[in-house]
């Protein structure tokens, strides 16, 4: 394995943690970024078990100075950045007319602006390595609905942001794509269903079984499947793919 470095945000749980474990097979070192240090240490253990070096950076990317701090720490410790995978950020699934200003600002601050600032801060290093960037969106970007308007709105903005970065990347030699997962069964989704089920008079098992049927899909996705897609996007085999929005959702989006 040649000396290569990937930075993954949101690496403390769910898709981010799974992606870090997967990329440890392809990169010699990983920068692991999230707010929860104890969970990040668990991810670091998975990365080291796979044979890669792990740099734990517990920081809140919603805060403006954090992006440059992540880049500075990564470069001073690991020396380079070959790939940046922006996964951090969760947006409340709240109705359009019930979302507070604070909820809108919080959703934008981490998932959109945190990713934007970190990509900008890492850009000079990515230019040097002819590196790759992935921004995590979601398939709700393609069908925003009132009951979870902020999710669709922010995800759509991320797709547009990735496209803008990719346009500059053609000149600078940096590849940029976005990923639009559908319903993936993570700990966060399980917790949501455990809260939602009794409020709607059903068991958790019934709630888990209900959604795929209503969404018109055979099953939930697995974090490992999204991680494999991301691994491809930051591999040598995908270098000519840039400016693309890749949807993996089990067929939930029915339109062309």
Looking at this protein, list some descriptive labels:
Rossmann fold; 2 domains; 7 strands; 256 residues; alpha/beta; globular; seven-stranded parallel sheet
Please, could you describe this protein's structure?
The chain is of the alpha/beta class. It is built from 8 helices and 7 strands, in the order βαβαβαβαβαβαααβ. Helix 1 packs parallel to helix 2 (37-49), helix 4 packs parallel to helix 5 (149-172) and helix 6 (187-199) crosses helix 7 (204-215). The chain is globular, with a radius of gyration of 18 Å. The N and C termini lie far apart (40 Å). The model has no long low-confidence stretch (mean pLDDT 95).
Can you describe this structure in just a few lines?
With 256 residues, this protein is of the alpha/beta class.
Task: Set out the fold topology.
Blueprint: E1 5-9, H1 14-23, E2 29-34, H2 37-49, E3 53-58, H3 66-78, E4 83-86, H4 101-129, E5 132-136, H5 149-172, E6 175-181, H6 187-199, H7 204-215, H8 223-233, E7 245-248
Parallel strand pairs: 1-2, 1-4, 2-3, 4-5, 5-6, 6-7
Helix pairs in contact: 1-2, 1-8, 3-4, 4-5, 6-7
Task: Please give the CATH architecture of the largest domain.
Answer: 3-Layer(aba) Sandwich
Q: Count of helices?
A: 8
Q: How far do the termini sit from each other? A: 40 Å
Strand percent estimate: 5-15%
The backbone outline, from C-alpha atoms, is globular
CATH-derived topology of the largest domain: Rossmann fold
Average pLDDT confidence is 95
pLDDT below 50 for ≥5 consecutive residues: which ranges?
Answer: none
Order of helices and strands: EHEHEHEHEHEHHHE
CATH superfamily of the largest domain: NAD(P)-binding Rossmann-like Domain
Q: Rounded to an integer, what's the Rg over CA atoms?
A: 18 Å
Helix share, percent: 40-55%
Largest pleated sheet: 7 strands, parallel
């Amino acid at each position: 394995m040649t000396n290569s470095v990937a930075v993954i945000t949101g690496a403390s749980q769910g898709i981010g943690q799974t992606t870090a474990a997967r990329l440890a097979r392809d990169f010699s070192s990983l920068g692991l970024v999230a707010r929860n240090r104890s969970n990040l240490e668990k991810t670091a253990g998975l990365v080291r078990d796979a044979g890669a070096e792990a740099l734990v950076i517990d920081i809140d990317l919603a805060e403006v100075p954090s992006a440059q701090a992540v880049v500075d720490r990564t470069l001073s410790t690991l020396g380079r950045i070959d790939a940046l995978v922006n996964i951090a950020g969760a947006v409340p699934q709240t109705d359009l007319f019930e979302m507070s200003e604070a909820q809108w600002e919080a959703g934008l601050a981490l998932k959109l602006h945190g990713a934007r600032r970190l990509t900008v801060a890492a850009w000079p290093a990515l230019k040097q390595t002819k590196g790759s960037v992935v921004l995590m969106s979601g398939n709700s970007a393609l069908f925003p609905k009132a009951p979870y308007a902020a999710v669709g709105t922010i995800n759509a903005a991320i797709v547009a942001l990735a496209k803008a970065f990719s346009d500059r990347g053609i000149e600078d030699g940096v590849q940029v794509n976005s990923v639009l997962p559908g319903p993936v069964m993570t700990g966060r989704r399980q917790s949501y269903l455990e809260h939602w089920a009794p409020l709607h008079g059903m068991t958790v098992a019934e709630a888990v079984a209900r959604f795929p049927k209503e969404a018109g899909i055979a099953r939930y996705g697995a974090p490992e499947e999204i991680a494999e897609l991301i691994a491809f996007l930051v591999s040598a085999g995908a270098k000519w793919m840039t400016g693309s929005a890749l949807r993996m959702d089990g067929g939930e989006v029915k339109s062309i």
